[in-house]
Amino acid sequence: MKRKGLKSLLMIFVLTTLAIALTGCSGDKEAENSSQITIGIPQDVEESLDPHKMVAAGTKEVLFNLFEGLVKPDSDGSLIPAVASAYEESEGGKVYTFTLREGVKFHDGSLVTAEDVKFSIDKCADTSNGGPLVEAFSNIESVTIKDASTVVITLKEADTEFLAYMTTAIIPASNTAADTNPIGTGPYKFVSRSPQENFIMEKFDEYWGEGANIEHVTFKICANADSIVMDLEGGSIDMFPRVTATQAAELSDNFEVLEGTMNLVQALYLNNAVAPFDDVRVRQALCYAISPQEIMTIISDGKGTELGSSMFPAFGKYFMKELNDTYNQDTEKAKALLAEAGYPDGFSFTITVPSNYQPHIDTAQVLVEQFKAIGVTAEIQLIEWDSWLSDVYQNREFQSTVVGVDASNLTGAALLQRFVSDSSKNFINFNNADYDTALANAIASTDDAEKTKYYKECQTILSTDAANVYIQDLPEFVAINKKYTGYEFYPIYVQDIAKLKLADEQ
Amino acid sequence: MKYAGKKVITMIITLFAVTLFVFLAFHFISGDPATSMLGTEATPERVEALREEMGLNDPVLLQYGRWALNFLKGDMGISYSYRMSVSEMVADKIPVTVTLTILAFLMMVVIAIPLGIYTAKHVGGVIDRIIYMINQVIMAFPPFFAGILITLVFGRILKLFTPGGYVSYQKDFFGFVGYLIFPAFAIALPKAAMAVKLLRSSVISESKLDYVRTAYSRGNSTKAVLYKHVLKNALIPVITFLGMALADMIAGSIIIEQVFSIPGLGRILLTSISNRDYPVVMAVIVCISLLVLVVNMVVDIIYGLVDPRISIE
Amino acid sequence: MIRNGKKNYNLIVGSIITGFILLLILVGTFYTPYDPDAMDAASKFAGVSLKHPMGCDNFGRDIFSRVLEGSRTTFIVAAGTVFIGTFFGIIMGALTGYYGGIVDEILMRFNDAMFAFPSILLALLFISLFGSGKYQVILALGIAFIPSFARIVRSEFIKCKNMDYVKNAKLQGASNIRIMFVHILPNTVTVLLSAIMIGFNNAVLAEAGMSFLGIGVQPPDASLGRMLSEAQTYLFSAPTYAIFPGLIIILMVLGFSLLGDGLKSEE
Q: Is residue A73 predicted with pLDDT exceeding 50?
């Protein structure tokens, strides 16, 4: 009797399990909504959804679709009017006058007013929390509402690049829960967020402009980077920005792989204040020791763009390709420089690498091998991103680190200002009086040609002074199901989903 | 009952010790929540202002006391990173991990008990040897690797499920459970192998005891002896094991959740640790420890019921 | 190896496998065909050949050389873990089991707390505290393993302390320390040995798990777990990258558990 009971119990277990398994399998193939896309992202949108407080690149690229500033960046790097329909620069870059576009609505249905604009800018310029949310806003003298559709911003010092900061999101003054309920004017509006699961948004029907094509967009968090190919092929995601070269090669014909660049400066950043890197000859020796080409060949099948200073090609007029040749791999020269600096037998040092990004870890491993040739022993130390932020970036307690530094906007200052000796972002402790002068000149000059000249001077100094061991702008591979078209690369770190459309809809 | 009361008190002390330990540990780890929230935009002034605002400049024991007091009042705080209520976040994820664990546990029982009895009955036979070898090999697999192979075989080659195709239980419960079947299988497999091995050896050692010989000598058939006497006693150590395995599974799901991209407690815990999001870390650890402790207690009680000798302790 | 006229296959097979692995580790200590860290862009993902018997990985490093080195690292990590776990586990278990009373109560409650705390979690916390690296992994896992060893030793000591030979020793005036470590401890060896075997295997698997979570041995150092978790990205372009480290892990664990089973049935 007992035995029968046990047996039938087991039977029930097995049957229910099976039944659930079967329903589960068929459940996946839900009616395929024609107008939806699921995009895999490696990192969750795990911070405040207030566009003025967000700091992670991963958050910015997603929220780009929800928010707009008075102007917004276009895919070619230029700034186009958004919430403002027109703007005027006067007094040599000291006064900016914005005319608000008529009928622009927030996602909650209310109209954008001049008060909202003033509120947004004032909020970012507020210094009561130890500093303004947008550093450049400390230059703002006043924000005045001239009439219901005109806002005038007056600066303390003239700055012809100031417009680039006007991409700062305009949000409604009335939203009290901006941290968790983002309301903007972008082509998509926020639906929901589930930690470590997804971030869902849908088309905003009352968008002032052309608007989005795809109705429902889900950003799905793909925690396991190694199963991305399987996720794409299995259909659980339709697109993944930033697959690796190897993953791209494994994808089937159903996917298109678009190649762009990540728009960041990947380098072995050296702490210029600590021995032995306080000696320019040692830094130069390291530059001579490495070969960016070899690194690219090994980690990304030769894809990527070699860099020689803190600037990447997306900046067009500022980028100086010739700086790639300041140092070409030359083991003998490197050894000679080391000997001159008092390290004839080389030395050892630590490369600190944030553990969340494989290309940097891979690059560091190749660097270790390349340094061996000049008798320098490097040891890799992986640390979590948050430890990196506090130990390396904040406290500057490190010898060297491999990371990619990106630009928050398209001004030359975005990349170059951090190396001014007293900048709070100068984590490498670079200290060069000529550099400080050149950068101050660049910012002050109102003439474009002159500005460019000074920015180039800055880059040249970084290169000859071997501030860092510059490597490359990493390649970016976007894998997208051929059902969709219209993907566009931007010179800054964003994903513009509004431009995507279904392939058979044209 | 006195026994259970003592257990509950121990449990509370344990929880207190665990939370205090975690809280202190976090205090010494490099990286702090304020820096984490400000990222590369941080300036020393802004970090300082934020630390002050978040109460991070207070003595650590004061911070712990504040946390514990609020926690007891049912307020788990606000997540530093997500800026949403921690209780909401955790409540959202508990069903995921619990369902996964229950599924895995059921699978383990379904696989292990019949196989264990079968092998014990046919000790030395060919099938027994084969099962023994398979068992050993399964136990030698690193859990995440087994997960990857399962994804590969059942997901990509046999197409029985969509890798990464997790659906929320709120949206489609059956789809949710359906997706969890294979991850649960990955968790259950090594535990089932251990259970089979344990049951087998437990039945064998029980069969060698005097009372079994006596039963045989009275002319009982093999089957009757096995089911009436041996199995009942042999199951006792197995119950302990199953309890331990259940507790282990709750914690062990961390890795499998990562392999199969399941947004459960484990994933939340991992990311909160690296985001220095203490309120979430603390809440999840309390939840996991509580689940483990409750399971242990239930096992102890069942054990006491099955084997009267224990309650003397 | 012959018992009741029947061959102890577990012991034989286990010894052969373990012997093979130990040989591999021994060879790897003195000789690897290539520098395990040397990269070569030209032989990236090279297949199995005479030059590279297990092919090459994503950096063009020789997988065979790395497997040799990785096996050693993994073995050292596992052995170190078990050593720390056993050493402190014995001390803790012996004291609590032998003396009982309040010491026992406190240490065992502490033990319970550690037990309720999943070991992988504990390791995770320790790594956040100490930083990551080979020695940190040993320390973290070792500490996480203490409670389970302490528990086993404690119950053995409770069992033994009332036995006649202990009473005899006491009558002869042997000190408590002497009784614990000279008289009782040797009698727990069989139980301890099988616990060590199981612990060793758990350590190998835990190392792999930690590498998967990115908190294990640091690159470019090779360990089997690290190689296996790195290899999963390339499961299709370079299956040998995953297969060989995976195989060695499985063999290592299998060998020890067969050996353990064999020794047990040998009693």
A: yes
- Chain B environment of C253 (Cβ under 8 Å): 139-140
- Global pTM? 0.83
CATH number of A188-261+476-505: 3.40.190.10
Closest to A271 in 3D by CA, of A146, A403, A362, A374:
A403
Residue C37 is assigned to a structural domain of this protein:
no
* Chains adjacent to C (≥3 CB pairs closer than 8 angstroms): A, B
Contact assignment for A355 to C214 by CB distance below 8 Å: yes
Q: Which of C161, C167, C170, C163 is nearest to C96 (CA)?
A: C161
Q: Is residue C137 part of a domain?
A: yes
Superfamily for domain range B86-268: MetI-like (1.10.3720.10)
CATH number at residue C261: 1.10.3720.10
CA nearest to B53 within chain A:
A129
Ordered DSSP codes for A306-373: E-SSS--GGGGGG--GGGGGSS---HHHHHHHHHHTT-TT--EEEEEEETT-HHHHHHHHHHHHHHHT
Which long-range contacts link C161-164 to residues 24+ away (Cβ below 8 Å)?
Answer: C161/C97, C161/C98
B164/A180 touch (CB, cutoff 8 Å), yes or no? no
- Provide, as residue numbers in chain A, all residues whose Cβ is less than 8 Å from the Cβ of C220: 365, 368-369, 380
Q: How far apart are CA A48 and CA B12, in angstroms?
A: 34
CA B94 to each of CA A161, A177, B288: distance values in angstroms, whole numbers, following the listed order: 50, 26, 9
A361/C219 Cβ within 8 A = yes
Number of domains in chain C: 1
A126 interface with C at CB cutoff 8 Å? no
- Give C42→chain A minimum CA distance, Å: 9
Cα separation, B247 vs C115, in Å, equals 10
Do the Cβ atoms of B43 and A131 come within 8 Å? yes
B 77-96: CB under 8 A from A: 79, 81-84, 89, 92-93
How far from B182 is each of B98, B139, B240, C51, C86, CA to CA, in Å?
A: 15, 17, 25, 40, 36
Domain residue ranges in chain A: 67-167, 188-261+476-505, 265-473
Higher pLDDT, C154 or B312: C154
Residue A7: the pLDDT is 52
> Using the beta-carbon criterion (under 8 Å), do B14 and C109 form an inter-chain contact?
yes
Mean pLDDT over all residues of chain B?
82
List the single residue in A229, A298, A355 with the smallest CB-CB distance to C44. Answer: A298
- The reported pLDDT for the residue numbered C118 is 61
Domain ranges of chain B: 86-268
Average pLDDT over residues C56-65: 87
| CATH number of the A265-473 domain | 3.10.105.10
Q: Distance from B184 to chain C by nearest Cα, in Å?
A: 17
Examine the pLDDT at A6 and tell me if it is beyond 60: no
Instruction: State the number of CA atoms in the 13 A half-sphere of B26 facing the CB.
Output: 25
**Does some domain include residue C159?**
yes
B252 neighbourhood in chain C, CB within 8 Å: 118, 120
Q: Cβ of B161 under 8 Å from any chain A Cβ?
A: yes
The CA-based dihedral angle spanning residues C10, C15, C18, C22, taken in that order and rounded to the nearest 10 degrees: 180
Provide the shortest C-alpha distance from residue A226 to chain C (in Å).
5
Best to test chain C binding among A226, A251, A252 (most C CBs inside 10 Å): A226
Domain that holds residue C122: 2-25+62-265
pLDDT, tens only, B21-38: 888 877 777 677 888 788
Query: How far lies C90's CA from each of A484, B149, C94, in Å?
Result: 63, 38, 6
In a domain, C6, yes or no: yes
Q: What is the CATH number of domain A67-167?
A: 3.90.76.10
Chosen from B29, B36, B115 to mutate, greatest number of chain A CBs within 10 A: B36
